[in-house]
Amino acid sequence: MTGQTTRGSAPLRYRAGPRRQAFAALLDGLRADGGAHVVTGEPGGGRTAFLEFAARAFRAGPVWHVRAEPACSPQPHSGLRTLLRAGRHFGRVPGDGTAGEVFLDILRAATARSPLLVCVDDAHLWDTASRAALGRVAARVHAADGVHRVGLLVTVPGHRPVERELAKLPVLELAPLTPGDAAGLLHDLTDGAVDPVVRDELVTEAQGNPGLLLALAHRLSPAQLRGDHALPRPLADTGTLTAVAGGCLSGQRPDRADLLLAVAAAMRATGEQDAEAALVRRATNGLGGRDDDVPPEPVEPPQASELLTVPGGRLRFRSPLVGRAVYAGAPSERRRAAHRSLAAAHPEPHGVPALLHRSWTAPGPDAVLAAELEAAATDSTSGTPSALRRTAQVRAAELTPDDAQRARRYTAAAEQALLAGHPPEALRLLDAAGSRPAPAPVRGRAELLRGRVLLADGPVDDARESFLLAAGLLTGPGAAQADAAVLGAADAAWAAGDRQGCLRALTHDAHDASAEAAVAGVLDLRAADANTTGPQEAAAREAPEGSSAHRGAAPTQPAVPPPALLRDHRDGMRAVLLGRFDLAAAPLTRVVDRGRPATEPERLLRSAAAALMLGDVSAARRAGARALASARTLGTASLEPRALEYLAYAELRAGRHQLARTHAEEGLRAARRTGQRNTAAHHHAVLALAASIEGARARVTEHATAALTTARRHGLAQAALLAQWAAARADLGEGRPEEAADRLGPLVRPGARRGHFAVWMLAVPCFVEAAALAGRPEDARAVVEDFALWAGCGADPQAPAQLLRCRALLAAPEAADELYLRALDRHDETSGDFERARTELLHGKWLRRRRRLREARARLGEALVDFERCGAQLWARQAAAELRAGGVAPSGPGMGEPRRHGARDLSRLTPQQLRIARCVAEGATNREVALSLSVSTRTVDYHLRNVFATLGVRSRVELVRLVEQAEKTGAQL
User: CA 935, 938, 940: angle at the middle one, nearest 5?
Assistant: First the structure.
């Protein structure tokens, strides 16, 4: 053992993972008050690196390091002798019972001037007497029993229980690294030279273990790290696993080694983190014929041990890495014997786990066993999870002698891999499926699945080509999969922003030559560039933030939806692209209706997509929510982020950005778990849009950058434009209209740089506002006329009010006021506080600059309240600043207490104003007030503005309070 008093420098910076705040609080406590903690974690989990991290962070005083050297034979008191050396005490180590006191005296002396941190690494390697003395010292330090300002960190491995000498101390367990932190560690190690695909595979294989992650990286050549050469299979081989965790397995008795191997083999067959204790016991009793001819001893009921725990009748390795090392390090004949015993002991001999155990004992191809595995994996009544179905299908393919059958089974395995959330593995299995000759339908199904994988996590142009190839291979009478491939190709073209490519894909139907010819004729008439503005193109714009609906349903689903549903979706989508909403309504409505009674996620997601195309936000939300619930019930992990994407976009369509943010945050986590970077980019775009409303500029930048990074790599035109729109809206919210106009101009004006054909219309109101406020109204006039065509389609409830607002911004002074009032009337017909508040803010600004201060204050007050209600704090500050400029001290959250009004204020109102005030206090909208009083909505708005100005209130909320107070005091209305 060695001691040192200088801080070591870790080769890589420590990444604390998901518990950064807890670690920071612990280190702050050590600096301020001292104390003792045990730090534990599985082999390779970063215990030593954490001590280095703690030492670098401890700047209040000296740090003493004590490291164990396993190669040295422990001698009595060797551990305490090392501690004394670290404390620069080189005298004789006292006898039993006094060594700890001597070290306590050293600590007291060392902390007379400053705090001290003592880092003891691998204390489990110390001799028993030293550990006992260390435990007594740690207890005194932790209790501050005469020892102050000493921080003591003691590391022990997490694959075994904490030694009893230290068991009473608080334990800090190092959690696995998050995928992001693991990727950062690889970036540090390779100076950023690792290919993203290789990085993701290494991160997945390491399962958050930094030691294994580094070992895997060191195993690869520079060319393999760059992605130029194929990776070795398996990535974590026997040598790598045993190098990281093999030392934990030395000295095991033969019967105990058999038990550990049986547990590891049982876990491999189920894919779970534990194994049934009774099954393992039966299997271990049946193990025999060891190489050393030692007869097996009867195995007692499995109990908790140094390496295993027994929670609820299940056996679990304390360290998952140790379990992997147990299986990898066992001789192949012992592994086969363990699987043979487990298969014989299994209560369901024809279930997937028992068949997998049998398969791992097979010496070569076995067509009968392969057929049994496939039948068990495809049994819809078994409740087998996708990950286990995938394993069974892979094993069935490996045992299959026929090339066509093998390709089909590899494709089925890839499908299950994608459903389980593992796109890279799905692509590897598809490559294996394509390595042998196979009939056209088998190859077509593989290409269909490849397209789905790439649509969720790859270049969408590549996805389109795979879909088109699949459509050609799957052509035939009643080929529902060919229809799915056609629609998938259109989805990919839509995602890429290729409108004509989308139309061509939708006419790729050998059974519908007349329809293809008809649409070809339409395309001939529209030979102009797709960016040319025209009524058909303008009408084909997709509804706000619902654009992803056209990218189809979830990327994989074992059962292809009925042909009628797919063709209705295709026909409706084609009509929308051609600007024929009259022809789109019927087929899309049928798709929505078919989703209402459905329980399959595929149908429900198609229903949500069709509802968004129709502008039926409520139906889209219902279908998306049901699809999410269904995906979770079925355990199809890959469908969850897509269902959450539909929900997020639908909530944005409805003006509920906070709910959209909630769904997008959950969807982003799900997309990352399942390796769907394209879906993650759309969730980032939603989060950027939500943050641009809330005024969180740092989050806008973070999510917009993330969305654009993937969008540019994979050709996602939709996500790119939405992210740029979010950045521009943040500029506008911060009072920088010039920057917003410059950012949005190329994306919405005609030309080669115009954004996605289905999304650029959504950004027009933002651009018009930015251009008008920047003093460049002429830049926006042409796009307003295009927007008018879109608003007339009826697929976006917000568009008519936004159009009137745009016209007001560009109108002459004598016409602007009426346009603003008409816009507010249209806002009353839809939900969404944010868009209404933006119109109120712009109208209030317009009124204030024309010295109509009383009306301006009323309008700005309503804008302020609406912004606050929807959480748009940055925009609320704009409204408050305008109020202050108009001579009003705004009140509300963070702006002071609301002013108090007396009932006598009501006497200042005219009779008509009193009647309107009463109706508003009862919760009526302006339109409802107009109907009840037989006046126009414009008249109600005019009187209500005067009511606000007369009473000095800013919102309907304050008016309600004032009316209620008047009623309590008996005032007459």
Answer: 60
Res 583: pLDDT? 86
What is the DSSP pairing of strand 308-309 with strand 314-317?
antiparallel
Amino acid (one-letter) located at 74: P
Q: Is 155 helix (H, G, I), strand (E, B) or coil?
A: strand
CA distance 179 to 918: 58
Closest CA to 714 of 683, 678, 687: 678
The DSSP-derived string for 856-886 is: HHHHHHHHHHHHHHTT-HHHHHHHHHHHHHT
pLDDT of residue 79: 55
Residues 6+ apart with CB under 8 A from 437: 403, 404
Question: How many helices and strands (H and E) does the chain possess?
Answer: 46, 9
Could you report the per-residue pLDDT of 283-302, keeping only the tens digit for each?
988 775 444 444 444 445 55
* DSSP secondary structure, 265-300, as one string: HHHHHH-SSSEEHHHHHHHHHH----TT-PPPPPPP
Long-range contact set of residues 875-881: C-beta below 8 Å, sequence gap at least 24: 875/693, 875/695, 875/733, 875/834, 875/837, 875/838, 875/841, 877/695, 878/733, 878/735, 878/841, 879/837, 879/840, 879/841, 879/844
Reduce the secondary structure of 421-442 to three states and give it as a string: CCHHHHHHHHHHHCCCCCCHHH
What is the model's pTM? Answer: 0.73
468 exposed, middle or buried (CB, 10 Å; 0-12, 13-18, 19+)? buried
| CA end-to-end distance (rounded Å), the chain | 90
Residues 732, 480: Cα–Cα separation, whole Å? 48
Q: What is the mean pLDDT of residues 42-48?
A: 91
Report the alpha-carbon distance of residue 223 to residue 900 in Å, rounded.
73
Name residues whose C-beta falls within 8 Å of residue 379's C-beta, 6 or more positions apart in sequence: none
Whether the pLDDT of residue 150 is over 80: the answer is: yes
pLDDT higher at 342 or 286: 342
Report the range of poorest mean pLDDT among 15-24, 387-396, 600-609, 874-883. Answer: 15-24
pLDDT at 288: 57
pLDDT of the residue at 87 = 53
pLDDT digits (tens, 9 = 90+) for 486-514: 989 999 999 999 988 988 888 865 344 34
Residue 701 token pair? 């930048």
d(CA 447, CA 445): 5
**Secondary structure (H, E, C), 101-144:** HHHHHHHHHHCCCCCEEEEEECHHHCCHHHHHHHHHHHHHHHCC
What is the token pair recorded at 536? 């058909």
Residues 6+ positions from 948 with CB-CB distance below 8 Å = 857, 858, 861, 862, 954, 955, 959
* 919: number of Cβ within 10 Å: 19
Q: In the structure, what pLDDT confidence band is assigned to residue 597 with cuts at 50, 70 and 90?
A: confident
pLDDT tens figures, 430-482: 999 998 889 999 999 999 999 999 999 999 999 999 999 999 998 765 567 88
* pLDDT reading at 741 higher than 90: yes
Mean residue pLDDT of the chain comes to 82
Q: Among positive and negative, which fits the CA dihedral 908, 909, 914, 919?
A: negative
Contact 666, 644 (CB under 8 A): yes
At 813, list the tokens. 């002074």
Question: What is the three-class DSSP state of 153?
Answer: strand
The DSSP bridge pattern shows strands 35-41 and 150-157 to be parallel
Q: Phi/psi at 876 (nearest 5 deg)? A: -60, -35
